[in-house]
Amino acid sequence: MKFEVFWTNPDYKVRPELRENIECDYLIVGGGITGVMLAYFLAKDSDKKIVLIEKDTIASGATGKAAGTLVLEGEVDLKDMMKIYGREKAISYWRAIHEALNTIKEVVTEENLECDYELQDAVYASMSRGHDSTIFEEYEMAKNMEQSVELVSGKDLLKVLNTPLYRHAIVYKNHGVSVNPLTFTQNLSRVTEKYGFTIYENTPLVHDKRRIAVTPHGTIKFGKMIMAIDSEARHSKIKRKNTTLMVTEPLTEAEIISINMVSKKIVWDTKRNYHYFKLMPDNRLLIGYGDKYVRKKFTETTPQGLAVKHTEDYLKKLFPNLNIRLEYGWSGSYGVTKNHMPVLDIRGNKWSIGGAGSQVVCVMAARHVAHKLLNNNSYVEEFFSN
Ligand SMILES: Cc1cc2nc3c(=O)[nH]c(=O)nc-3n(C[C@H](O)[C@H](O)[C@H](O)COP(=O)(O)OP(=O)(O)OC[C@H]3O[C@@H](n4cnc5c(N)ncnc54)[C@H](O)[C@@H]3O)c2cc1C
Fold first, then answer.
1. Which phi-psi region, left, alpha or beta, contains residue 75 (left: φ > 0; alpha: ψ -120 to 50)?
2. What's CA 316's distance to the chain center, in Å?
3. What is the pTM of this model?
4. Which of 58, 98, 110, 288 has the fewest CB atoms within 10 Å of its CB?
5. Pick the CATH number of 13-117+179-236+339-386 from 3.30.1220.10, 2.10.10.90, 3.40.640.10, 3.50.50.60
6. Mutate to test the pocket of ligand 1, among 183, 229, 242 (most ligand atoms within 8 A of CB)
């Protein structure tokens, strides 16, 4: 088994580091999905001079290690959203997330982005009697919000997914988006250059003083600086979470038919929302298996032995008749806040954004920040902690 990130982007050419002193209106620090989407929105909607610096390469943080499962329910269930925010606010949060997911779809189409984009059903399933009420409650909420949602059990569930593990499931028709998160972000950064913005890779921000950002071989005089470094930000509200992904060897066509995955879907379950899987374009299963096993003794990319063992056990329970091996495994960190709201910290000309917890929320956050910077209205203000 290879303990390395599965995603690659062989055609991507890393840009040179900064080696001079420059000026800009907006300096974005961090080239993950948040920083790159923010740059995209700003570059498209304004003629400001925008510069992005990334200490490593674009998408080398959580973004390029992620599963690329973009769904409406990320860190929180709809029913938990209702508890946290109250009904009205939860409904507008749900709409905002929908909008962010639509934005991703539009950007992929408009910019002709190569990123293995696929629209798939999203399936949320319960695996034990104790979890049935979670699914039923969730379905009651979902059917009021969505037209294309269905609750399936027994034989109907087996038609959706042939596994003995699940008892009931909510099927959201075409609600999930599957992408390769590395190519999505790196290729978007390339596209964004045509709207007139500049990126320097291998260029860390070392420190800043009075509107001057200092990097190892050059300085940047900025109007506003926006930090988009997520789990690396030293912010009391942003907690670092570690999580693990595994990729199997490719399944045969017969194996895919046998588990009813011909029509692809993104599946996650009630027990932990880090149990999830999807079938990728090359017919490999990508499986997310929790944050529990890497929390204590964590190395940046190597998942611990236990994570491998538990993923193998999970796979056996999920599809007992499949005999497939895990081929890749890695771990990564990302930022979340306790109340699941991203943080936007504004201190004069230094802004900081992070803790979104999922890539769809990162896009919502990036759009919000772009609106605020360009003095446009943003109706998602209430979903940010500061
Ligand atoms: C293993 C894993 C699987 C995941 N799966 C999913 C999923 O399927 N779906 C989903 O929605 N979310 C998923 N997530 C969460 C998601 O990846 C993150 O919420 C999101 O990518 C965060 O993006 P970001 O741009 O805010 O941060 P990052 O991607 O971490 O980007 C921050 C960037 O800042 C750079 N940086 C830091 N310090 C400096 C500095 N001083 N100077 C310059 N640059 C700096 C870093 O190098 C990094 O590239 C997953 C996360 C992990 C770890």
1. alpha
2. 27
3. 0.95
4. 110
5. 3.50.50.60
6. 229
